[in-house]
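The authors assume throughout that readers already know how a fold can be written as discrete tokens. For illustration, here is how one protein appears when written out as sequence plus structure tokens.
>
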Amino acid sequence: MYAGRRACGISSGWLRIRNGPAELMAEASGGHMGTGGAAERFWDEFQRLHKAAGEPTLASMVKLAGGQAPPARVTPATLSEWLNRKSVPSRGNSRAFLALAAVLQAWAKAKDAYAPRPTGWWQELLAQAQDERRMAQKNGRPLQPRAPRLTPA
């Protein structure tokens, strides 16, 4: 059992079985075995898109978002958190993210490096990731083990 799921290795990576055989998910990324949640899928897809678009700088992505009508405000720190698996776009940043994803997909498609996803697909993935993160915050984080107390002798 792996965190409530059965997992078995295959030569090209991992095969995850979630809630039975109807929900097989193959992970062929060199054996990376994440939790498989919506946030993980969001981060995987956003990183893949960023790379396919030529890995634009944070500054250029901020400028892209600001050039939308109306301007979408996003900071380099926020973009860094999205790309480095620290956070998912908040509901307030959903429009900025979707506008950015649309531009990045156009860049990636122009390089023949990416098959664009429909906007609805990104919206659904983002909503699932936001819900998952909100539930995790609502339920609280598991307690971290404390270091033993040292008492003077």
